[in-house]
């Protein structure tokens, strides 16, 4: 099975719900690639010995890894953390997440500044490019176990929107220009 992604509706109630538009508008892996999002389906039950994961880490230079169990029982100030993750932001580096258990949603902006919702579940590895506006939340199960990958020592600083003058945002906009139309907020 491949990535599950769709255009998110504009309803601002519980962000842990799927929020499909009516009618549903699904987004393909090619459409995700157009905004720089990369995706792999891997075997989460054997991640320690997964040759595909090893190749991805080696080819992309991910030499640091840690785990994040995100649920009310394991995270102090859980609600505050979720609000922080769900605030629209960018990073100066790629965000690499491999879902080992549970489910959650990454929302990213497309060229027209619409939200694309990406469901991540066990086996999904996604890479968000540096400078892309995004946010994250869990689904209604309130649990996800993620492997976080980094190049070098982990640096996870978020810069809340607007960040049009941030170097990572400027580079992102340059990298994903299509036929002279930049990916800018409208």
TrEMBL record:
<keyword id="KW-0533">Nickel</keyword>
<dbReference type="Pfam" id="PF03079">
    <property type="entry name" value="ARD"/>
</dbReference>
<feature type="binding site">
    <location>
        <position position="95"/>
    </location>
    <ligand>
        <name>Ni(2+)</name>
    </ligand>
</feature>
<feature type="binding site">
    <location>
        <position position="91"/>
    </location>
    <ligand>
        <name>Fe(2+)</name>
    </ligand>
</feature>
<feature type="binding site">
    <location>
        <position position="89"/>
    </location>
    <ligand>
        <name>Fe(2+)</name>
    </ligand>
</feature>
<feature type="binding site">
    <location>
        <position position="95"/>
    </location>
    <ligand>
        <name>Fe(2+)</name>
    </ligand>
</feature>
<keyword id="KW-0539">Nucleus</keyword>
<keyword id="KW-0486">Methionine biosynthesis</keyword>
<comment type="similarity">
    <text>Belongs to the acireductone dioxygenase (ARD) family.</text>
</comment>
<keyword id="KW-0408">Iron</keyword>
<dbReference type="InterPro" id="IPR004313">
    <property type="entry name" value="ARD"/>
</dbReference>
<feature type="binding site">
    <location>
        <position position="134"/>
    </location>
    <ligand>
        <name>Fe(2+)</name>
    </ligand>
</feature>
<dbReference type="GO" id="GO:0005506">
    <property type="term" value="F:iron ion binding"/>
</dbReference>
<dbReference type="GO" id="GO:0010309">
    <property type="term" value="F:acireductone dioxygenase [iron(II)-requiring] activity"/>
</dbReference>
<feature type="binding site">
    <location>
        <position position="134"/>
    </location>
    <ligand>
        <name>Ni(2+)</name>
    </ligand>
</feature>
<keyword id="KW-0223">Dioxygenase</keyword>
<dbReference type="InterPro" id="IPR027496">
    <property type="entry name" value="ARD_euk"/>
</dbReference>
<keyword id="KW-0560">Oxidoreductase</keyword>
<dbReference type="GO" id="GO:0019509">
    <property type="term" value="P:L-methionine salvage from methylthioadenosine"/>
</dbReference>
<protein>
    <recommendedName>
        <fullName>Acireductone dioxygenase</fullName>
        <ecNumber>1.13.11.54</ecNumber>
        <ecNumber>1.13.11.53</ecNumber>
    </recommendedName>
</protein>
<dbReference type="GO" id="GO:0005737">
    <property type="term" value="C:cytoplasm"/>
</dbReference>
<comment type="pathway">
    <text>Amino-acid biosynthesis; L-methionine biosynthesis via salvage pathway; L-methionine from S-methyl-5-thio-alpha-D-ribose 1-phosphate: step 5/6.</text>
</comment>
<dbReference type="GO" id="GO:0005634">
    <property type="term" value="C:nucleus"/>
</dbReference>
<dbReference type="GO" id="GO:0005886">
    <property type="term" value="C:plasma membrane"/>
</dbReference>
<dbReference type="GO" id="GO:0010308">
    <property type="term" value="F:acireductone dioxygenase (Ni2+-requiring) activity"/>
</dbReference>
<keyword id="KW-0028">Amino-acid biosynthesis</keyword>
<feature type="binding site">
    <location>
        <position position="91"/>
    </location>
    <ligand>
        <name>Ni(2+)</name>
    </ligand>
</feature>
<dbReference type="InterPro" id="IPR014710">
    <property type="entry name" value="RmlC-like_jellyroll"/>
</dbReference>
<feature type="binding site">
    <location>
        <position position="89"/>
    </location>
    <ligand>
        <name>Ni(2+)</name>
    </ligand>
</feature>
<comment type="function">
    <text>Catalyzes 2 different reactions between oxygen and the acireductone 1,2-dihydroxy-3-keto-5-methylthiopentene (DHK-MTPene) depending upon the metal bound in the active site. Fe-containing acireductone dioxygenase (Fe-ARD) produces formate and 2-keto-4-methylthiobutyrate (KMTB), the alpha-ketoacid precursor of methionine in the methionine recycle pathway. Ni-containing acireductone dioxygenase (Ni-ARD) produces methylthiopropionate, carbon monoxide and formate, and does not lie on the methionine recycle pathway.</text>
</comment>
<keyword id="KW-0479">Metal-binding</keyword>
<dbReference type="GO" id="GO:0016151">
    <property type="term" value="F:nickel cation binding"/>
</dbReference>
<dbReference type="InterPro" id="IPR011051">
    <property type="entry name" value="RmlC_Cupin_sf"/>
</dbReference>
<keyword id="KW-0963">Cytoplasm</keyword>
């Amino acid at each position: 099975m491949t990535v599950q992604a769709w255009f998110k509706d504009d309803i601002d109630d519980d962000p842990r719900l799927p929020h499909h538009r009516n009618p549903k508008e699904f987004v393909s892996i090619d459409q995700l690639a157009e905004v720089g999002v990369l995706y792999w389906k891997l075997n989460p039950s054997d991640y320690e010995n997964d040759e595909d994961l090893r190749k991805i880490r080696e080819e992309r230079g991910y030499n640091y890894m840690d785990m994040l169990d995100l649920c009310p029982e394991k995270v102090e100030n859980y609600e505050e953390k979720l609000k922080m993750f769900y605030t629209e932001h960018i990073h100066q580096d790629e965000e690499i997440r491999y879902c080992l258990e549970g489910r959650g949603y990454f929302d990213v902006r497309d060229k027209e500044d619409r939200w694309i919702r990406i469901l991540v579940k066990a086996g999904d590895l996604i890479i968000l490019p540096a400078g892309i506006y995004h946010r994250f939340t869990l689904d209604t199960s309130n649990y996800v176990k993620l492997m976080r990958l980094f190049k070098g020592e982990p640096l996870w600083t978020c810069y809340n929107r607007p960040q049009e003058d941030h170097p990572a945002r400027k580079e992102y906009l340059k990298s994903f220009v299509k036929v002279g139309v930049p990916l800018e907020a409208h």
